[in-house]
Design brief:
Chain lengths: 365, 88
């Protein structure tokens, strides 16, 4: 078992697509909430296999895309301080703040901005630059948060005093509950994020299925994984069921990764958090608990997050709610492209606008 | 940020492992992995941390269910419901 080749069988994909086609009797809209799913759907050319009438819309699951302009402004203010070195995931570096500048601009003006692969790399930077204040910019969902928690714990064990985390960590269930609690939305089913689910467990989506009668299926990232998940969703819809099902059992269990959950609970506590396009959602963010506050950049370095307006004309906010598609944005492909991004949905490789642009899709799907 | 493809473990140390994908090796932390892997296992990696160790039996079951669904077999419905029950 190599866990890859077996799941890239084209014949199996075709057969699943055919079964999907046979099962679907009327148009349905499915939201794929995870940025990695969005990318996988486009990159694998899966759209061409899907039956007409089955529409996939993206949700608020690209971590960089949902980072508010106010937070980006605060990151920029921090990076501009003398003696500060910020460590960030690559995607974040080109996201414009409210004045259109990004961490990449700041770096070209002399700010110390380092792209890292893991939050742990922030610790290495802190060790190598003992005279500087090193701040890791924490963005991400349940899949990223346990690693940030492990990093903060390691910093404390090592007694590092020049390492901090600016946390904007977010949890997935509160925005989903808000989105599907809105009677106006028109989504029939949810393709649940595979690796967020590896941490929180498939059973976490129970409230969505029960309260809002929303079919929820956890899916992996190979074309066959996505097709199987879509087939399970369409079957539920055709049979009038709304349940949580799991099409990614090789990675996701009902209860999730308990080790990661307990570490996160030890280090973080819920806090209200602002999302781009969705506003402040109660309890949807995470901040460091009291014993770990010595590593909290906002508290220890006095960083303020002041409310800021989003870029004018950018539809990211509506796109993140599944209410608009990139080609509906007047800036899409003209003023806004991956090399001159105006909103975060065009910056991140997981962003819907960038996926549409790179795979040059018309709005016909 | 999230690599969807499993990587194979080549070497294990206290808190970290060396993993490989298509000839490229990388060091990953084992702080939060659900089951500690052994050399030869495959793990899902996210931002420098292994988050899950795959199990061959689970993967085979996963694949078998897919094949049954692709063949339009209804046996799956029964199996599905069981999975469903265990979720509740
Ligand atoms: S195309 Fe650009 S400006 Fe328009 S919604 Fe997407 S990111 Fe925003």
């Amino acid at each position: 078992m190599k866990y890859v080749d077996e799941f890239r069988d084209q014949g199996l994909a075709r057969d699943l697509a055919a079964a999907l086609d046979r099962t679907l009797t009327r148009p349905r809209r499915i939201m794929e909430v995870c940025g990695t799913h969005t990318m996988a759907v486009f990159r694998s050319g899966l759209r061409s296999l899907l039956p007409e009438g089955l529409e996939l819309v993206s949700g608020p699951g690209c971590p960089v895309c949902v980072t508010s302009a106010a937070h980006v402004d605060a990151f920029l203010a921090l990076a501009g301080r003398p003696g500060v070195r910020v460590a960030t995931f690559g995607d974040l570096i080109r996201v414009p703040g409210s004045d259109g500048t990004s961490l990449a601009h700041a770096r070209s003006q002399g700010a110390q901005v380092e792209v890292v692969y893991s939050p742990m790399d922030g610790l290495t930077l802190a060790r190598n630059h003992p005279d500087e204040t090193v701040v890791f910019l924490g963005v991400g969902f349940e899949t990223t948060t346990p690693g940030v928690a492990a990093t903060v714990r390691a910093a404390r064990q090592e007694g590092l005093s020049n390492f901090f985390v600016f946390t904007t960590q977010k949890t997935m269930m509160p925005p989903l509950m808000a989105l599907f609690g809105d009677p106006d939305q028109s989504i029939d089913g949810l393709l649940c994020p595979g690796h967020v689910s590896a941490i929180i467990g498939a059973a976490a989506y129970g409230p969505l299925a029960e309260r809002y009668h929303l079919p929820c299926v956890v899916g992996g990232f190979e074309p066959v994984d996505i097709l199987q998940a879509l087939l399970l969703l369409v079957r539920q819809l055709e049979e009038g069921r709304s349940e949580v099902e799991n099409a990614y059992t090789r990675v996701v269990s009902p209860a999730g990764n308990l080790q990661a959950q307990s570490l996160v609970a030890e280090v973080f506590e819920p806090v209200d958090m602002e999302w781009r396009g969705l506003g402040v959602i109660p309890g949807s963010g995470l901040q460091l608990r009291a014993p770990y506050r010595a590593y909290d950049a906002q508290e220890c370095l006095g960083v303020e997050v002041v409310s800021a307006t989003e870029v004018r004309g950018c539809l990211c906010g509506r796109i993140l709610q599944g209410r608009a598609r990139p080609p509906e944005c007047p800036l899409f492909g003209s003023r806004c492209t991956p090399s001159t991004p105006i909103g975060p949905c065009m910056v991140s490789s997981e962003g819907t606008c960038s996926a549409y642009y790179n795979y040059s899709l018309s709005d016909s799907n | 940020m999230c690599l969807a493809v499993p990587m194979q473990v080549r070497e294990i140390n206290d808190w970290s492992a060396v993993v490989e994908l298509e000839g490229i090796q990388r060091e990953v932390r084992l702080d939060i992995v659900d089951r500690r892997p052994v050399v030869g296992d495959y793990v899902i990696v996210h931002a420098g941390f292994a988050i899950h160790t795959l199990d061959a039996e689970e993967a085979k079951t996963n694949l078998r269910l897919m094949q049954e669904m692709a063949d339009g077999l209804d046996v799956l419905d029964g199996l599905d419901r069981q999975d469903q029950d265990s979720l509740q």
